[in-house]
Write a structure and sequence with these properties.
Elements lengths: L1 H14 L10 H9 L10
Protein name: N-acetyltransferase domain-containing protein
Organism: Nocardioides dokdonensis FR1436
Pfam family, one: Acetyltransf_CG
């Protein structure tokens, strides 16, 4: 369930043309670490 939520949220960010995500949640940060194609969305 968490993976589906993470993927959907990040796809929404990507579709909106946004490029800055702050991964404040440890689950999301860990999920992005495991899915490097989403790392360009991270701030800094």
């Amino acid at each position: 369930m968490g993976s589906a939520l993470a993927r959907t949220a990040l796809e929404e960010v990507r579709a909106a043309g946004e490029r800055e995500v702050v991964a404040q949640c440890s689950f999301i940060a860990g999920w992005i670490d495991k899915h490097p194609d989403y790392q360009p969305l991270l701030v800094g």
